[in-house]
């Protein structure tokens, strides 16, 4: 039979999984070792120390052999009890899924949302904006009995390309003098968008391997705070596999209470070496620069960027709203079939109305320009009219705004 493998590299331009650097793939190909042996403890301690630096925390981080959804569940079941009121905020599809999970776990989540529909695009306003900390403060002030046990928000909403201001949410909780825990999903934010666990006073952060950490999917994280650990001692939702107590205890020696995902941890050690070696500041700056270049292209095309508030544009991905009548998924399929380029689909309430360009992890100026060229060729094939060339606009942007560190665009 003919080998149907496409020629050249696939362009994985979705906002996670992001492309995995060869260096990490090679690190993961080493033989699996005894997870109770002395060599393993060195690996365990190395990754636990390194991941804490990436979260910017001095407190424990739990690593699970699970996708991000597992770490979402872990966050909720460790600190909450049946029927607890939880305040969540609708920023898009992932906030909605976390809300649905809270319902399924027997919590009583309240879903705050910015109302209305945008007159230009017809998209829900809530799916074009970040968390409104003012609404959270108002709601917490009204909760005089302190029935609300946690505030849960998504840092980088992967379905929209909006990055919310987490420090502002912390200030809102403090201004309301409310004891609710702050829980943050930074699954697609960590190691791409600035995230500061301790400084921002986050109690539980949730993240995953397949985005800014440049690993394959399969491990996920809970970064904790002393208050979260304290709350976990009396919380009554059932928890066993996800329970932090045994994990944190075993992690002190570099081990886990069960068989961890050894080869992904090899990959994590390699990823952390790359990330910490380059420095978080440089990584955040390079994502901001890529994002600005891609937005320049979208503006040149004359299409709306899904994020309607420039203050919270995501450095990780850009949502591109297609003209009314152009099915974004048909366009994506055409681009995939013709150019072997994967773009992110519109999820939930924006299905078919937009696509997402990921610009995270192991990218550079040229891979992004090539991805934009794939989109632009797709527009031509599909007969989608554009105002000007986005590729040329992005090339001009990247040329005019050189990266601080050459070859690390
Ligand atoms: N939250 C956010 C912000 C995400 O982007 C994702 C996945 O893309 C998830 C949660 C769910 O994570 P997973 O698909 O790894 O279970």
From TrEMBL:
Keyword Transferase among UniProt keywords: yes
Keywords: Aminotransferase, Pyridoxal phosphate, Transferase
Database matches in SUPFAM superfamilies: PLP-dependent transferases
Transferase recorded as keyword: yes
A molecular function (GO) term: alanine-glyoxylate transaminase activity
Record PTM N6-(pyridoxal phosphate)lysine, positions in chain: 211
Cofactor: pyridoxal 5'-phosphate
Biological process annotations from GO: glycine biosynthetic process, by transamination of glyoxylate
Protein origin, superkingdom: Bacteria
Binding-site residues, substrate: 356
Domain Aminotransferase class V: 51-294
Family: Belongs to the class-V pyridoxal-phosphate-dependent aminotransferase family.
The protein, known as: Aminotransferase class V-fold PLP-dependent enzyme
Organism: Piscinibacter koreensis
Lineage: Bacteria, Pseudomonadati, Pseudomonadota, Betaproteobacteria, Burkholderiales
């Amino acid at each position: 039979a003919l080998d149907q493998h496409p020629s050249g590299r696939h362009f994985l331009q979705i906002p996670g999984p992001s492309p995995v650097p060869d260096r990490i793939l090679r690190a993961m190909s080493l033989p699996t070792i005894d997870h109770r042996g002395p060599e393993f403890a060195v690996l365990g301690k190395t990754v636990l120390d390194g991941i804490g630096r990436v979260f910017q925390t001095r407190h424990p981080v739990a690593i699970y052999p699970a996708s991000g959804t597992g770490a979402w569940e872990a966050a909720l079941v460790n600190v909450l009890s049946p029927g607890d009121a939880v305040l969540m905020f609708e920023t898009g599809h992932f906030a909605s899924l976390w809300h649905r999970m809270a319902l399924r776990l027997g919590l009583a989540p309240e879903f705050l949302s910015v109302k209305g529909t945008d007159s230009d695009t017809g998209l829900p306003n809530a799916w074009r904006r970040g968390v409104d900390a003012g609404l959270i403060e108002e709601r917490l002030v009204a909760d005089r009995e302190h029935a609300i046990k946690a505030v849960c928000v998504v840092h980088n909403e992967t379905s929209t390309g909006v990055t919310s201001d987490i420090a502002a949410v912390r200030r809102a909780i403090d201004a309301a003098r409310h004891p609710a825990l702050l829980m943050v999903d930074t699954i697609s934010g960590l190691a791409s968008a600035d995230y500061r666990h301790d400084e921002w006073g986050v109690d539980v952060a949730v993240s995953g391997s397949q985005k800014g950490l440049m690993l394959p999917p399969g491990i996920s994280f809970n970064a904790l705070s002393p208050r979260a650990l304290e709350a976990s001692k009396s919380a009554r939702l059932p928890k066993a596999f996800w329970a932090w107590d045994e994990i944190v205890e075993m992690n002190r020696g570099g081990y886990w209470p069960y068989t961890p995902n050894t080869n992904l941890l090899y990959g994590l050690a390699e990823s952390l070496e790359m990330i910490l070696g380059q420095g978080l500041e440089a990584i955040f700056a390079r994502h901001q620069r890529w994002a600005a270049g891609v937005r320049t292209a979208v503006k040149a095309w004359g299409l709306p960027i899904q994020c309607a508030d420039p203050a919270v544009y995501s450095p990780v991905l850009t949502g591109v709203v297609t003209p009314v009548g152009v099915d974004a998924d048909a366009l994506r399929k055409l681009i995939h079939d013709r150019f072997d380029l994967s773009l992110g689909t519109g999820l939930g309430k924006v299905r078919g109305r937009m696509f997402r360009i990921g610009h995270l992890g192991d990218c550079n100026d040229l891979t992004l320009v090539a991805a934009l060229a794939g989109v632009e060729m797709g527009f031509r094939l599909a007969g989608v009219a554009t105002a000007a060339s986005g590729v040329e606009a992005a090339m001009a942007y990247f040329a005019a705004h050189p990266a601080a560190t050459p070859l690390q665009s």
